[in-house]
Amino acid sequence: MEIKSVSFPADSPPLSVIAAAKVAGIPLSANPSAAPDSAPSFHFSNGLKLHGTYVLLRYIGRIASIPNFYGQNAYESSQVDEWLEYASVFSSGSAFENACKYVDDYLGGRTFLVGDSLSIADIVIWSSLAGTGLRWESLRKSKKYQNLVRWFNSILTEYNDALSEVTATYVGKKGLGKAIAAKSKENLGNSQSSKTVSGDVSGKAASKSSFEVDLPDAEFGKVKLRFAPEPSGYLHIGHSKAALLNQYFAQRYHGQVIVRFDDTNPAKESNEFVDNLLKDIETLGIKYETVTYTSDYFPQLMEMAESLIRQGKAYVDDTPREQMQNERMNGTESKCRNNSVEENLKLWKEMIAGSERGLQCCVRGKLDMQDPNKSLRDPVYYRCNPMPHHRIGSKYKIYPTYDFACPFVDSIESITHALRSSEYHDRNAQYYRIQADMGLRKVYLYEFSRLNMVYTLLSKRKLLWFVQNGKVDGWDDPRFPTVQGIVRRGLKIEALIQFILEQGASKNLNLMEWDKLWTINKKIIDPVCPRHTAITEERRVLLTLTNGPEQPFVRIIPRHKKYEGAGDKATTYTSRIWLEQADAKLIAVDEEVTLMDWGNAIIKGIEKDAEGKVTQLTGVLHLEGSVKTTKLKLTWLPESNELVNLSLMEFDYLITKKKLDEDEDFTGAVNPCTKTEIAAIGDSNLRNLKRGEVLQLERKGYFRCDVPYIRPSKPIVLFAIPDGRQQSSLK
């Protein structure tokens, strides 16, 4: 029983129903000819009907192929129902902002409204906001409801094509109304009809955070892409862009992504890299169909190379490598170019055997040595390499080059579109020529700009140098641009995804600032991460409150004043408390200061040593004083044996130059000091931190716990998380 059409009054289209169907890939033919004030209806192919917005939404939720679209159990389904009923509040003018605040607070620690995945609830609330037009857009551009905007933007990014088409059709500047264009009879399940994917729900030109172009000749439901890393290092931020773009286009066209390891160079590759690349791909949330290896196709690739030799489209060359490079640059044909097929096959067998003679040779494609595009000047297809392969051992002595293997395997694996960074632009003609010589189906190449970051090297060869020379502690070092490195430093994957998707699929080369990425990250962690207190160990100062509590007492206070989900912490109040030396130096005698989470105190005495360092303070509590009148708001810790030792780690860039040229010697720009460690003491609640937990140390900044509490003599290790500002958080 198929839905034949959805009918509704022309001036009140059921945006949530149309959007839900679009996202779920359910074809709907829109019929805006229903009587005014009538409820929207589904008309089925067998003549049956269903009426009412929420009835239609529940029906879509039940038949959609999206997992848990109507909740994964009875409780979640009931939660979805609650949100369906709540959605009407957004249409009440006076209650609109109250509704925004309610949902914003609710989303404080959540990604979706119900459970852990997209549901009808998300679509109906999203549509309720989008349907108000400029009213929501103005709020969306403000910083008033950050959780709500984060959630709204993430859904728009994930389902951009579907949602932008619906809003562009039915939402005007004043909000929901008649279709903006004559699209009433279009098939709303066909995503190919949208040629511009816009992040602006008012239907304007695509915003900076959108993908503004389509894949060439892409057919809805038939797109197949591959993410093909070489297992010679860990996944870094540049690879992340390629992986996420592949997933974006696969989802947009309801296609699929596979992961293929381009394992054609045994000298650089290992199972360690394979395992960690898969781990990083999972961390990024890439949903792939299967994992394949170029080495799976070595027999077919050898057959293809031999076939090209027999056809006169390839030859075996024993020209020394440096001479060959010079000849290619000058357009000079090799002395071996016109060898007979018999001579080529004889040398090919020597190569396969890995003999002394074979090791002197390589296979080259016979393309065009005069072509202005030097990649077409007889590129190398096969080389000898006696090293064992990490998957198949010493079975082969020859290995295909990337240039030869990639067009072959792409076509054989039915890839429709191969995404490559624009650095490969000059080799696109080579890719198509080799594929044509092989007699294989053409695969479309799609270019995007390579992601370059300031003060950062993304070459795996150069990153390996840092590892091998002990400049970092491994591929997951927090100073490294690898996924594991930046996550270990405290980056949320959600921030990385947002950062990359905001750049879109542009082909313009760009050098990106890390500050922008860390600013996005701060907006994600700040609303939910717990607050704690730490005091720098060196020259900390004891303040004695003469009228302080005779006996220490404990209060339970929130770990985050605006987010209940962060839980509570126990704070001890005593008559002797620790202050930072830097704070103590700013205090004058008889000055009133605020002790955070306690109240005011008046400093009555200050003692200093010969160097002018403060050694001791005395004062009195003045809890009736106003915190609004004090200049200094101070963090403090009780004098207690319950305090824990901390090691606060801050990191700097590995190189001192903002941008290095491709051939520039990077070793001359290596930063000699990239790690700073500061000893501190922290509140007793820090004992409960788990590895990976993100927190804020009041007035110091954001941190990620790398080593949790083990025993009193071993400090908790906290990594400082940049927040997008240039200055150090620990200074």
Would you spell out the secondary-structure blueprint of this structure?
Elements: E1 3-7, H1 15-24, E2 30-31, E3 41-44, E4 49-51, H2 53-63, H3 74-86, H4 96-106, H5 120-130, H6 134-141, H7 146-158, H8 160-170, E5 171-172, E6 175-176, E7 224-227, H9 237-252, E8 256-261, H10 271-283, E9 291-293, H11 298-310, E10 314-317, H12 321-330, H13 341-353, E11 362-365, E12 380-384, E13 398-400, H14 402-412, E14 417-421, H15 428-438, E15 444-448, E16 451-453, H16 460-468, H17 483-489, H18 493-503, E17 510-512, H19 514-525, E18 531-532, E19 534-536, E20 541-545, E21 553-558, E22 568-573, E23 576-579, H20 581-584, E24 592-595, E25 599-608, E26 614-621, E27 633-634, E28 637-638, E29 644-651, E30 675-682, E31 694-697, E32 701-707, E33 716-721
Parallel strand pairs: 1-2, 7-8, 8-9, 14-15, 16-17, 18-31, 20-26, 24-27, 29-33
Antiparallel strand pairs: 1-3, 3-4, 5-6, 10-11, 11-12, 12-13, 19-30, 20-23, 21-22, 23-28, 24-25, 25-26, 29-30, 31-32, 32-33
Helix pairs in contact: 1-2, 1-5, 1-8, 3-5, 4-7, 7-8, 9-18, 14-15, 18-19
Briefly summarize what is shown.
The chain has 731 residues and is of the alpha/beta class. Helices cover 30% and strands 20% of the residues. It is built from 20 helices and 33 strands.
Name a few traits of the molecule.
731 residues; alpha/beta; flat
Tell me what you see in this structure.
Helix 1 crosses helix 5 and helix 1 (15-24) runs antiparallel to helix 8 (160-170). The strands form nine sheets. A seven-stranded mixed beta sheet has the order 18-31-32-33-29-30-19. The protein has 20 helices and 33 strands. It is an alpha/beta fold.
